[in-house]
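Ticket 4471: requesting a sanity check on a complex prediction with iron/sulfur cluster. Repro inputs:
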Amino acid sequence: MHVPFCRRRCRYCDFTSADFDSDLARQVVAALVAELDRRAPARARPMRTIFIGGGTPSILPVRLLETLLENVARRRSRQTEFSVEANPDSLSKETLAMFRTFGVNRLSIGVQSFVDKELRVLGRPHSARQAREALARSRAAGLENVSADLIYGIPGQTLESWRFSLQQAVDADVKHVSCYCLSYPEGTPLANDLAAGRVKEMEEDVQRESYELAIEVLRDVGLRQYEISNFARAGCMCRHNITYWKNEAYIGIGPGAASYVGGCRFTNVPEIARYVAKIGFGPDAIASSEELVGWQHMAETLMLMLRMRRGVLRQPFRRRFGVDPLEAFENVFQKHRQYGLVNISPRSIRLTPQGLFVCDSLFSELVTQKDPSTRLS
Ligand code: SF4
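Returned structure tokens:
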């Protein structure tokens, strides 16, 4: 579920999100609840996982947050993994207590860095001190399963300052860390700074060293890499995101949210006002849909599964698609094996540590390879 509001826009962000506005927020929450009722009636079986993200869900005033959580919580059971995203500057004791009341059992906090200078480059609305306090407050409130998002590749960041941020997350005893390399989406203020030469992109070999440093530092304290950008203690992998990486079904609620149901991918309109109007006056807010079938479905599933350290298990894949993944994409996999990017065994196909860092070319070859049956005709 996508809550599309933020205190202010970070300089690198191109997500669907707007500055907080209380009137619009009331309308959006009503629309989210209405869409949820239509797409996932409360009388249906409970959800395996729920993820309320954004945007910044924790920015909602207590009353609105309560309405939202109350409605969402009707879809949970004791086994449900129920995650909410929050930013350090909007995580009050009251909000945390409410999360506990409605069964939220996983918190994902957008820390990004523990160095104030780097937070300013990113345009984040909080300080490193606020991040430390938010992590401590979450634990004190009894939320044990906390994840911290961190960014490497920030202009001005060094390997030492990156190590410091990783260590601070470890010291805060988080159970999960997501490490993303900074990107410069077109049209964002940071991309404009880059184009004008006001900031300098981190060199690729330093980015790679930062990535390797994260793997090493986090592994040494028991946070094992289980996906390209994600690290967790045993039993704390994000089940919700694993659903995406296995290309299994999910329902997306909110402006710009994507769903994958019955082999079809649907995407809602991204504009907030249009989303509210479409849910208010029509049956849904879908802007586009695409059916994933046959070869394309298989290639996309492979690409998503390869993101995970355990890779693609060949036997279950054969059962799902009726063909061995190596047989279907032999030339792509053998070529990347020669480069040392892929490990192939009778049981699985996995990216090597080097392959995890440079997986884009393999992924694009997988999804652009034509179905052999159509190549023959
Ligand atoms: S808090 Fe997250 S969603 Fe909001 S502007 Fe910053 S990066 Fe984007």
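Notes from triage: The radius of gyration is 21 Å. Leaving this open until the requester confirms.
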